[in-house]
Amino acid sequence: MKIAVIGASGLMGTKIVSVLEREGIDVVKASTSNGIDAYTGVGLERALAGADALIDVTNSGSFGESDAFDFFRKAGANMLAAARTSGVSHYLALSVVGTDRLVENDYFRAKLVQENLVRASGLSFTIVRSTQFFEFFDGIVNASAVDGVLRLASILVQPIAADEAATSVARLAAGKPANAIVEIAGPERLHLPEMARELVTATDDPRPVELDHEVRYFGVSLPKDGLLPTSAAASGDLTFHDWLSRNMVSQEYA
Fold it and tell me: Where are the transmembrane segments (predicted)?
């Protein structure tokens, strides 16, 4: 089996490639660093030649940048066209749990456009919506800082380690297309402020964490369960506490 990973040099792309290679799968590592550009379409057909499946883990900008819509619309259209031409039989796109509830934010609205392009393409597909990765929580917490205080609403999250998410994505791509949305998440539901307190304690961050029910999540008003999967998603075993402990130990002895 041959699988092309578009966006192979990013956090998830790198991890997915490693999983696929350990499984003995022939992998095409496609990214702008080796001349394959999803946004312009340059090199896509070459990257997909002979590929059975395509994993789209391309990304653009941050949660607050409006150029994400242009990127996902153009890159998605280019990858889907190349996949049709190359005879790809399984198109897998990585998205975010709650995307359809976060459309007040430009980035998530753009992700929903990406999902819709895939579903309307006529190709056999799997859309994998993942909860937040542990690796991103430092940025999520820092985005809540106001005058030296971390202000967070009491939102529930069910985050997952990027390594475990990558394993799930790789296995889904190597299997039969679901022709549906599949959700993946970690093993436990946590309150965002509690995670923030554990994070600042572990990193000796002196900033206080305060509960603020008026705070929005990247500009979006959400109910308490607005970031949780709607299905009984569970693919990860590693808890945030254990991941954080391992991460701190590895940094201490690096």
Answer: none
Q: How far apart are CA 230 and CA 225, in angstroms?
A: 9
Which pLDDT tens digit goes with each residue over 47-104? 999 999 999 999 986 444 458 889 999 999 999 999 999 999 999 999 999 999 999 9
Domain coverage including residue 147: 2-252
Cα first-last separation, the chain: 37
CA distance 132 to 97: 8
CATH code for the domain of 98: 3.40.50.720
